[in-house]
Amino acid sequence: MQPNTFAPRRPRLAAALALAALALAAAAPAHAETGAGTALKNTAIAGTIATWTVAALKGAPFFGCLAHGQAGNDAWGGRVAAGKDSELSYESIGVERHECQLTSVGGFSLDMSPTISASAWQAKNDSLYSHSAWDIALVPMMHWRYPVSSSARLDLEFGIGPSYLSESNIGDRQKGSNFQFSDHFGVGVSSADGHWRAGFAFRHISNLSIRTPNNAVDFKGVALEWTP
């Protein structure tokens, strides 16, 4: 009787499907109301789902990285970001764990940096609702990196995580609830040793259609990261 070579892959496949289903449940229905950031929002969601699925199928230590970080390098660093959309702007500061290697595909490496951030929001003075708000988000940032020299790498950044927003109505937006999902897509450059990264940062914020109306926010801006 020949061994079932597919059996060891079943837990990985189940995990991949569970992660994909979770991401779809958390993201897709909640983004029915969106504007000019549709393409970037779709890239953030699809890229995150695809990345989680690849990591799960390859047996990457996703939860180990999330809980313990990279063996021998559990340092924490910082991340600052700023962006705006048609009427809102934000600035954030956060902490992130040093990149934890998950797997590799071809010439690309995949790593994860769990990130906790706090952001201050500002709206136009003539807006209907609150002129300011804050949010706290927990997002496992995933990076596909490709070396372009001995000292630098280009990367694509994806991530989805929960966020708490202090005001359910901000600017001219009705967010429906304080609980939100924060979806991320970025393009950046980082040092080969992982001590710094800079790049474009897109952030889409909406809820799981927990309550409506669910007016989405699409921030476009920049991010800077550093670790010891």
Mean pLDDT over the full residue set: 87
Distance between the ends: 54 Å
Tell me the domain tally: 1
Q: Pick out the low-confidence regions.
A: 1-8, 29-34
What topology, given as strand order, has the largest sheet? 1-2-4-5-6-9-10-11
Could you tell me the number of beta strands? 11
CATH class: Mainly Beta
Give me the number of helical elements: 3
Whole-angstrom Rg: 18 Å
H/E element sequence: HHHEEEEEEEEEEE
- The shape is globular
Strand proportion: over 45%
Structure, explained:
- This protein is α+β, with helices and mostly antiparallel strands.
- It has one domain (9-226): Porin.
- It is built from three helices and eleven strands.
- Strands 1-2-4-5-6-9-10-11 form an eight-stranded antiparallel barrel. Strands 7-8 form a two-stranded antiparallel ribbon.
- Helix 1 (9-27) packs antiparallel against helix 2 (38-57).
- The radius of gyration is 18 Å and the shape is globular.
- Residues 1-8 and 29-34 have low confidence and may be disordered.
How would you summarize what this structure contains?
The chain is α+β, with helices and mostly antiparallel strands. It contains three helices and eleven strands, in the order H-H-H-E-E-E-E-E-E-E-E-E-E-E.
